[in-house]
Amino acid sequence: MPVTDVTTDAENLTMTVVADLAAPVERVWAVYSDPRQLERFWGPPGWPATFTAWDHTVGGKGNYTMNGPRGEKASGTWEFLRIDAPHSFEVLDAFADDQGTPDPDLPSMRMVFTFEPSSAGTRMVTTSYFESVEALEQVVQMGAIEGTKLAMGQLDAVLQDLRDYAQGKGTTVELLDDTHVRITRLVDGPRDLVWRAFNEPDLVKKWMLGPDGWEMTECIVATVPGETYRNSWAPVGDTEGEPFGFEGEVLIFEEPRRAVTTERMQGQPTETLNDMSLYEEDGATLITVLIEYPDKETRDMILATGMADGMEASYARLESTVLAV
């Protein structure tokens, strides 16, 4: 987690975020001056941002919308007040509507980003200036501190080449909080083929095989919000066990980059929210799945089943399937 300190100062009406980044200043500047790279972390997990306007000049604006997993939206706008590449820039940050018009009922803030060389690479300091104590407290109560930490936690993957960041690490599981888990796996293959492998029944049946000694008996895919999917498995031969399966509803389907679904074991009420995104770089695709559990106990119980090992076996088969297409 690159954020090392977050400090609020009611006397000076500021919130300061310090982050230590393992990349040179020029690389960090490139990330903050390119909306396509900003979109990969400007917004906490589950709320990816899309920049709909970008004029990186003094007086210009950058408008963005963060899209929640259940269709929620939260928009904002930057007005660039000062740009001193690659050392610092300053914006007026405000909540806004979809067209980038600031919302007068919500607080705005002046944000100063500075980048300085450090032994690790770059120390970034972001200082937000508020007009009143009430505005500062309102933003904090809205979850700005935790949201910033979670959003910045995605930055390491953006700063490094994708293969350097994830190749050879297998399936990685990160506990973000009591109810959210992030799972990542790099697949050596283009995003469009990985997307097909998740959404075409003939391909799904080649890799989503279940435990050893089991076979997939049902594969009903869903590609439209509101539709339901269903996958089932059963033991083969002398393998012991009762048939089982999972089902759920599609909430978001944005080919070929993001799909959000609910998931529950057939016949069980407990439901998770699975937010999958695909990002391609240099012919490789990073699969990121953000899972939201109803509570910590359910999270720990499911992780204890060996879910990560099962997912790694499946993703390894998925990679072989993609390479064979």
UniProtKB/TrEMBL annotation:
The residues covered by the Activator of Hsp90 ATPase homologue 1/2-like C-terminal domain are 23-159, 190-321
Q: Entry's InterPro entries?
A: ASHA1/2-like_C (IPR013538), START-like_dom_sf (IPR023393)
Identify the domain of life. Answer: Bacteria
Give the record's family classification: Belongs to the AHA1 family.
Q: Can you say what this protein is called?
A: SRPBCC domain-containing protein
Q: Which organism is it from?
A: Microbacterium croceum
